Description:
- By secondary structure, the protein is mainly beta.
- It contains two helices and seven strands, in the order βαβαβββββ.
- It has a domain at 12-83.
- 9% of the residues lie in helices and 34% in strands.
- The strands form two sheets. The chain has a five-stranded antiparallel beta sheet with strand order 4-3-2-1-5. It has a two-stranded antiparallel ribbon with strand order 6-7.
- β6 (86-90) and β7 form a beta hairpin.
Amino acid sequence: MTQTPEITFGDNVRVLSSPVMDAAGHSGRIGQCWGFTTPSATGMDAVDGPAEDIALSIHLEDEAFLDAFFRPEDLERAEHIGPLSANLGTSSTGAYVESAAVRRSVGL
């Protein structure tokens, strides 16, 4: 049995086909992992319902602002981006400043 590589922040992923993903229109869609949540603590459910206590936040390429939470077993890593980080802080004026790694294209 082949072990699936762990999906991490910044990785490009593809949604696997299943009856639930097909019905939701997500099968085969490409997105980027922007983080994760713990459903038991946040009340956020994954598209395919609860499984283990983790759901990955996936920004879908063809959605302007809509992110969806998926169970890891509903995704495959299409491209590993490598270590990324985002930094938030304040400027000397007290305004919030964000510096983050540039998002790579997910046009796979």
